[in-house]
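[step 3/7] fold_predict: job queued, chain A
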Amino acid sequence: MLEYKLLNSISGIKKRTFLILKILERKIMITADGSTTIHIPEWDEQYHSKHGAIQEAKHVFIKNGLSLFTNQRISILEIGFGTGLNCFITFLEAPKMNLAIDYVGVEAYPLASEEVEKMNYVNQLEANEFSNIFNQMHQQGWELRNEISPDFSLTKRKQFFNEINDENLFDLIYFDAFGARVQPELWTEEIFEKMYKSLKTDGVLVTYSAKGSVRRALQSVGFLVEKLPGPPGKREMLRGKKS
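[step 4/7] structure written:
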């Protein structure tokens, strides 16, 4: 169960009261590729694609994001740390690209420990030797930089997305918020302007979304946007570059 706070007239977002002291049920779901995600029945929304959580993460964030970088140290901002899947896969894939990574995951409503225990990513990714790493990612404190390995640091920030005020700090953004259908306030020009400012020049933002309104919002704040083939179950996705 997840308790949402009363949020009225949030600075930087068009005035909107969006969730008022409401308890939303969260259920564990097995997606099409066998990996788990969390389903919110009241919204009919998942943390990851029901067509395959791992497949989506690898396609959107690794293939079309992380793989653009090799042989260097980069900083990544994840919008919606959630289950930790994107972070864990990034940790596993980074050595293949000779990358050292400083990873920042932003999450307003962290998972409970009992929910984390039900995520089967370690087994599905055949990464049992790193099970302690996945657990460490979730157990570490908030607002603290933790050296997961010599080439991978993780900082988790318990923060609303409209509160992000970083400038010229990140090379890559994984924009993995709940969909615009249920939380349109997370996909506005105001939010994407913050994303644009937080990226270094030539930085990249990738997201599973391909909505026209999202593309236009990205373009309006300065991103050069391209449509790419989407993951299983989606025809297209978007990638934006700060130039």
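[step 5/7] annotate
Helices lie at 53-63, 85-93, 113-116, 121-124, 131-139, 189-198, 212-220.
The first helix runs from residue 53 to 63.
exit 0
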